[in-house]
Automatic annotation (TrEMBL):
InterPro entries in the cross-refs: GP_PDE_dom, PLC-like_Pdiesterase_TIM-brl
PANTHER family: GLYCEROPHOSPHODIESTER PHOSPHODIESTERASE, CYTOPLASMIC, GLYCEROPHOSPHORYL DIESTER PHOSPHODIESTERASE
GO terms under biological process: lipid metabolic process
Organism superkingdom: Bacteria
Family annotation (Gene3D superfamilies): Phosphatidylinositol (PI) phosphodiesterase
Domain (GP-PDE) ranges: 9-243
Protein name from the UniProt record: Glycerophosphodiester phosphodiesterase
PROSITE patterns: GP_PDE
Organism per entry: Rhizobium glycinendophyticum
GO molecular function: phosphoric diester hydrolase activity
Signal peptide residue numbers: none
Amino acid sequence: MSGIDWIKDLPVAHRGYHDMNKTVWENTLSAFSRAIEAGFAIECDIQLSSDSVPMVFHDHDLQRLCGLAGEVRERTAGELKMLSIGGTKDKIPTLRQMLDLVKGQVPLVIELKGIDAEQDDGFVESVLEVLDGYEGKVALMSFDYHLLRALKHVDCPYPVGLTAEGVKPEVLAAHEEAMALGLDFTSYCAAHLPNTFITALREKGTPVITWTVRDEIMRERTYTYADQMTFEGFDPRVAPALA
């Protein structure tokens, strides 16, 4: 597991080091610049444009972040790059633009946001093509079994992880099935720890990070039952106030 042990080292800024979308919005070059300056690893999300360009964007639709109706996958990369996020100067960045900004200065944990196997045909290949030659620490992850399977099928050269949540036995069984693909780590909902699935992974030495930590309770839970946190809304470098 040495190829992914770095994921334990730094707190991971959820969608970059934004300020809860007040002035610095999620998944923007401004949020990524802020994370680099602070020395945090960066988590970000990837959607595909209609012309199969990996875009850094969380939602499947444009309403919440851009105030527009319609799906991300209905627009070309050229169109998406023109759209303002939250009314700020930041536009929707491509994965290439983000990589050109980060340049290996901090680790990247990249989540692929899938729809279904048919619509996601070529998604994995598009992302890996952009990543080819990038010099820096990168891990890829997804909630979507079909994307994880596709990453393993093409012998992804980067660590691959399961993004997951839940505590019901049937859910944990599905997670175990995904890990059996040969995955390297998991990013798990902090509120759903501890559980037998995560305990077993850690006993085997598989790194576990959590999402999304917004308070001291979840930070403490992370460092009790996992290895590192994906956080937002506070500065992990500042010691928490005593109760």
